[in-house]
Amino acid sequence: MTTTPPTEHAIAAAGLHKAYGDKKVLDGIDITVPTGTIFSLLGPNGAGKTTAVKILSTLISADAGSGTIRIGGHDIATHPQAVRAAIGVTGQFSAVDGLITGEENMLLMADLHHLSKAEGKRTAAELLERFDLTDAATKPAQTYSGGMKRRLDIAMTLVGNPGIIFLDEPTTGLDPRARHNMWGIIRELVSDGTTVFLTTQYLEEADELADRIAVLNDGKIAAEGTADELKRLIPGGHVRLRFTDPVAYQSATSTVREATRDDDSLTLQIPSDGSQRELRSILDWLDSAGIEADELTVHTPDLDDVFFALTGSTDVPNQRQENVR
Ligand SMILES: Nc1ncnc2c1ncn2[C@@H]1O[C@H](COP(=O)(O)OP(=O)(O)OP(=O)(O)O)[C@@H](O)[C@H]1O
């Protein structure tokens, strides 16, 4: 039996290449995910997100010339079985069998993981409880709502107690309430020390959940960082000062020359990347000019702006591209 060596990176892949015919889907990308964090891979349809998940989870191989891929400390090329034992994968196509009950689906997974009958039953009951499926456990899974099926799918993935979970678009098609429930589940997984590799087409989801986000475009990582770091990459951020006293507003407008003014709402917008350094200098400068605004708000571009600016996606309607600030 292989033991898992301690590692600070749950996932470390260097120079990942994958081509289908002439089409380079992944053109030498590096992915590093610290243990116990959520990493999100974003990209337009067909960018190669699922291909990356399939490679990292041993379902397909990377092309020759790729660098080393280590998952949970194991080299995927030499120890694929150890990698499989360390991971769970929930793909876009559910592993749930609709004809049998939720509980039977769980017991089937327990069998696959060679748990004893008693242990299988205990694990199934625990996970069904944790995912709020106890009441539905004896009903056929095909009668479940979309959200319940996804919860069952993740519960099944957890039977083997994996330390690293790949979630390929886990909330696609779910209504907002079910999506928020799923976010809660994902956060809970990570608070227990699990590492999550998440692909999503919902930028809000990456923004909400991910410690780090990588944007995949044209086979390369176009940018990587925290949501805030990515938002600062593109222009459009500003600090807004709002005044209630027209005299104070007038004096500010004559002092702050590069600001955009809105005389109706007595507000000024000063271009800013929203960084702590820039904010401090704006505040120091307002203080020294004796300007006191009634409200100061910082506006950074949202992740949608970043995504469209970085991917230049042809899937994006023109109107949306014009809106990139
Ligand atoms: N087995 C295959 N044979 C040929 N081309 C493939 C194969 N699998 C994927 N591709 C192509 O590789 C590209 C990347 O596909 P992939 O499914 O990884 O994208 P994705 O980012 O997950 O997209 P989506 O968000 O639509 O799921 C696509 O152009 C796809 O058509």
From TrEMBL:
Membrane topology field: Peripheral membrane protein
Keywords, sorted A to Z: Antibiotic resistance, ATP-binding, Nucleotide-binding, Transport
GO terms for MF: ATP binding; ATP hydrolysis activity
GO cellular component annotations of the record: plasma membrane
Source domain of life: Bacteria
ABC transporter domain span: 11-243
UniProt name for this protein: ATP-binding cassette domain-containing protein
Biological processes annotated in GO: response to antibiotic
